[in-house]
Amino acid sequence: MLAAMSLMPYPRYASDRTASLNGRWSFAYLGDDVDAARVVPGDHSTNDTISVPGVFDACPRWAGRRGVGLYRTTVKVTPGAEAVLRFDGLGLWAALFVDGDRLAEHELPYTGWEVRVPPRKDEIRHIDVVISNVVHARSSDLIQPYADFYLYGGLYRGVWLRELPGPAIRSAKVRVLDAQAGRIAVDLEAFDAVSKDAELAASFDGVAPKALPGVHWDSTYTTVELDVPDPRPWSPASPNLHVLALTLGDDVYETRFGLRQVDVVGREIRINGEPVELRGVCRHEAHPQYGPALPDTQLVQDMQWLQRLGCNVVRGAHYAQDPRFLDLCDEVGMLVFEESLGWQAHPEHFEDALFVERCERQTRLMVQRSFNHPSVIMWGFLNEAFSHEESSRPVFERLVSAVKEEDASRPVTFASMKPFDDLNLDLVDIVCLNVYPGWYADAEEGPRPLHTIVPLLDRALEHLEKNGLGDKPMIVSEIGAGAIYGWRDALHGHWTEDYQRDLLVTVLEKIDEDPRINGVMLWQFCDGRTYNDGRALFRPRAFNNKGLLDEYRRPKLAADAVARRFTKTSAIKD
Ligand code: ADA
């Protein structure tokens, strides 16, 4: 008998068939010059302790190391039961061994991973995960050494084991057909082919399950249309959620969803028919002490900060998000722009078939896994790729169609850093631009070049109009300035808290008064560690310092100023 743990993000499974593997694991750092692909866990003992979720290179003992670590644990199972191991996100590369057998490897950082574990007669299963955080400069890898955020090694998020009691549901995609009436379609996929008329029961919001008549399985698939009893639509102001539990034989699969529709109508973004102006920030999942493996209390505190800042949206920069965080966003009505991993991909990546295949695979997985979160209102990929290069076009076309195939109901976008020569903006539903006027400035623009902000935004908007893109919603998906926490100075120049505040106020005044701009996602929620080599000369402290809060979530001057503008009320109190 397995024990289920609380804090499991959706989807959840029958509690007596689910085990949490979160907690203490044993660990060994195998070294910097080890070929991760050749590690045989049985050759190594693990004498250190590590916490899961947890990354080794944020721990004092291995801080900043780049190499290979070995995570080890055991789990008690029902002898003879088949199982699935679910990792909600890890990095940068992993190989999974169960009872010494190498089952799979994973090269998609931050993307959830599920691996089937063949049955055995033993009650205790031995799990080894080999993790590498070596960042190669290979064109096939999804992330490159030059990325402007620290790339950690370890199990970033929760790990779970689910026993399969025979036929079992792998995924259930809830499509909202009519948000007001509570009509939904559920696309189900089973792990293995099930008999054509295998019985399926559904229960909403904890009410006793009812058998669904006339279900026809086509091998592993079926779709059912259902009416949600007592339907309550989801919106940022009323984030009502419904829980759907599906029973197939002895298997139970529980997902949560919201009744809401997102539409792009001309220049408007609408949620359940209501136009919405987006006001928020970009946020990395990061903390100096935990890296991306944030404890739940930090997620909850970050959410409180987002609310205090008056945000109604958060851009999950630059990867698929922790499902615990998306659950929180669903619960409080925080909208999300979710994007798959990418950071300034170049033509050499676009021309590498393996890179493109991985990019498509991780993007599809992100959409599949986050599909039922009502908070997610738009999908993106390839942040700031070289989308002005011709070789980018087929890649962008392929990714847009992959997303549309997975989800025809949400708008697609990508954050472009090429406002004047992007070749792919015609493909998207919403134009998103990353621009840094007033921050990345030439000496000729003089000190405090705030005067460049409005003209740059105007030129970008005019360029969109002239190129036939003026009928799409436009969002400033990044804009900001660096400030060192506590650095205030009479000159109010670059790196002062004062300049950051003045720049963001100038930006928000423009965005509030210009009807052509539908929203803004300021760069960024809080300071975050970045590359720690010579390039850090442009990144004091080896941090990206454009946070409204510092890395320990202490507010800078800008936090108050932004909150006033976002809430259009009084200041936040700290
Ligand atoms: C880019 C990028 C961010 C960050 C930012 C900056 O737009 O998308 O990850 O690097 O610039 O601080 O310059």
Residue share in helix: 10-25%
Strand arrangement, major sheet:
28-27-26-25-32-31-30-29
Residue-averaged pLDDT: 96
What is the count of DSSP helices, taking H or I runs of 4+ residues?
Answer: 8
Largest sheet: 8 strands, parallel
Q: Give the name of the CATH superfamily of the largest domain.
A: Glycosidases
How are the secondary structure elements laid out?
Layout: E1 12-13, E2 18-20, E3 23-31, E4 48-52, E5 54-55, E6 68-76, E7 82-87, E8 90-91, E9 93-98, E10 101-106, E11 113-117, E12 124-132, E13 154-155, E14 159-164, E15 169-178, E16 183-190, E17 200-204, E18 210-211, E19 221-227, E20 242-248, E21 251-257, E22 262-265, E23 268-271, E24 274-275, E25 278-283, H1 296-308, E26 313-316, H2 323-332, E27 335-339, H3 347-350, H4 353-370, E28 376-380, H5 392-406, E29 415-416, E30 431-434, H6 453-466, E31 474-478, H7 497-513, E32 519-522, E33 528-529, E34 543-544, H8 557-567
Parallel strand pairs: 25-26, 25-32, 26-27, 27-28, 29-30, 30-31, 31-32
Antiparallel strand pairs: 1-21, 2-14, 3-4, 3-6, 5-13, 6-12, 7-11, 7-14, 8-13, 9-10, 9-12, 15-16, 16-19, 17-18, 17-20, 20-21, 22-23, 23-24, 33-34
This protein binds alpha-D-galactopyranuronic acid.
Q: Would you give an account of this structure?
A:
With 574 residues, the protein is α+β, with helices and mostly antiparallel strands. The protein folds into three domains: 12-164, Galactose-binding domain-like (Jelly Rolls, Sandwich); 169-260, Immunoglobulin-like, CATH 2.60.40; 278-567, Alpha-Beta Barrel (TIM Barrel). Helices cover 18% and strands 29% of the residues. It contains eight helices and 34 strands. The radius of gyration is 24 Å and the shape is globular. The model has no long low-confidence stretch (mean pLDDT 96). Residues 148, 383-384, 417, 434, 478, 523, 544, 546 line the site of alpha-D-galactopyranuronic acid.
